[in-house]
Amino acid sequence: xxxxxxxxxxxxxxxxxxxxxxxxxxxxxxxxxxxxxxxxxxxxxxxxxxxxxxxxxxxxxxxxxxxxxxxxxxxxxxxxxxxxxxxxxxxxxxxxxxxxxxxxxxxxxxxxxxxxxxxxxxxxxxxxxxxxxxxxxxxxxxxxxxxxxxxxxxxxxxxxxxxxxxxxxxxxxxxxxxxxxxxxxxxxxxxxxxxxxxxxxxxxxxxxxxxxxxxxxxxxxxxxxxxxxxxxxxxxxxxxxxxxxxxxxxxxxxxxxxxxxxxxxxxxxxxxxxxxxxxxxxxxxxxxxxxxxxxxxxxxxxxxxxxxxxxxxxxxxxxxxxxxxxxxxxxxxxxxxxxxxxxxxxxxxxxxxxxxxxxxxxxxxxxxxxxxxxxxxxxxxxxx
Amino acid sequence: xxxxxxxxxxxxxxxxxxxxxxxxxxxxxxxxxxxxxxxxxxxxxxxxxxxxxxxxxxxxxxxxxxxxxxxxxxxxxxxxxxxxxxxxxxxxxxxxxxxxxxxxxxxxxxxxxxxxxxxxxxxxxxxxxxxxxxxxxxxxxxxxxxxxxxxxxxxxxxxxxxxxxxxxxxxxxxxxxxxxxxxxxxxxxxxxxxxxxxxxxxxxxxxxxxxxxxxxxxxxxxxxxxxxxxxxxxxxxxxxxxxxxxxxxxxxxxxxxxxxxxxxxxxxxxxxxxxxxxxxxxxxxxxxxxxxxxxxxxxxxxxxxxxxxxxxxxxxxxxxxxxxxxxxxxxxxxxxxxxxxxxxxxxxxxxxxxxxxxxxxxxxxxxxxxxxxxxxxxxxxxxxxxxxxxxxxxxxxxxxxxxxxxxxxxxxx
Lengths: 384, 413
Prior knowledge:
heterodimer, A: 3-stranded mixed sheet, 16 strands, B: 11-stranded mixed sheet
């Protein structure tokens, strides 16, 4: 087991941008009030299959979009930058830290808007029409590069790609970087996602995306609805919320295999850590049943919260969103209501609850075969 | 959980020597370590006209391509095999050879790089949407399997599944430096004692979007690729996969593993001056190389050869050339991209494998198509023919879009 009472890594700052708020606090307030992000239909270029999603309002991004470095960048970079600046501010660290700050970006789909636009031009008009301005923004590490430039990070910049678990892999990666580089003081972890019809249609071909405006979690397997957003955390060597358990995660090769792998990865952590609240990753797909079965077998009787019915499934941003909300739960002693909860899991928290807590567990089971957990412990009463 | 070690601030991060005890590679130069070694020694030119997609509107017409017949022989013919992406086939080939040369021992984890992932299946998917419209002008349902293969982590899962291993992994995507970043991170984990056995490296397969993208930037050349030549005119793309089995000295000794070489240093830098061009001073490459030296404890004069990033673009070679000249003065340099093109996220890993072959067999691979040296630089290009040499330590460079720079220091054992 990897519970380490002397683990020396802490959450120092949190940030977010979401369809419900321009920052972490604004989003949190809306979640606590039981608000649901507005649903909008994607513009649909080629098909009669329509999907809803939860976009981040453009007004939330106006300040970030004014950054010179981001003038040509896509939504994924903008969402990431907005969340990152929020987290840096929350951590109280100065920008321009050079070798003492690492930037790690967690990405799932990447710059899917620009990638589709660029390829659409190639398919419909030929290679000669391809834009040299769009191409660099299609690269997975474009958002990380912009972020590094804006905070003057001149050494460690990494982009990790995965499914909705990738944010938790990034936590482990950050801890490893801090461990092997004693001169590093902080790791800025950023997850971001943008919406696109193509993404929803692709996932719909696997029955993972719904054509409806809502979806249930821990209930009927209707498919999910996508959300945009950004989430960020700063990890360092001191702070009020300790990373009590973290790892690179585990992977499964098929849906049949998912329960066995998730069971092996999650149950020992639940049993050893004894969380007082769990932030699950249910999103209306097969992963809900897996998570439910794991929680049931582990005998979970603490409240379980899931933010995805309120904000949508934000893939690359979602695991770090869970960490941000876990920190806010520990800080504010509140658990927001899970919207649209099905009947599978009786411990799902469906009403606003005030409850002092010290231990929160984040679990993720991704579409693309990755499972992970991060355990957080409040170690002093004055976070950040 | 899953064997991970306690992490505290106080331990010695340079505690363990890091041995390469296995390696595998598939590239346009060959299907195996031996075939790649033979091609490197002969200075084979494996750049040819692109056949996978339409190139009628692009300036550049060529790339280093792995023949389909090589990939088809990787996995036994079946419905499952038919669905595999080229990248998955490459990863299966490279992982099979890596585990075989390592003595069939299982790694604790994998750190793998890719820049484009399964882009060509994404392209096929989008084309099928565009081309399958019904009478109302709307596209019909399309192939769901293509979506799964688009994910860059899929080839890792496919390779693990094919070889019956299931270990955690990271997928690093730092553009063209990704492969070296993946090896560098794995090296640091083993050196610090956090892991004993890690498979690391990278892959990338040729895709139309990326090919056209580089063409649109006018970074790709319609001529031959001529790294470090005074008249260089740009890169050509390539593809392939390369993997290393990194192992702590303790673990290698314990199981009496054959050691191929040693990884001794890793340096990274982020040059934030421009999205697609390096800072003209060469500060990015210079910092990466000097940090790799610092990490290894080697002095510049101990470096006997540099396997350069050497894309043959005007900007890359200018800045890398300045950095090598300033830091390593008259060291011999070659870019193996001259023979097989630029494999993007796989390049750093493939070139690290080439570096290990160079150390094991004591030779420097050639920089082919070379005509005229650029008088700006002091180093010596290993021009057109491979050369026998006493190599103790070398540096392998990889630099990418977004200013991501990585250098590895490798040593003979």
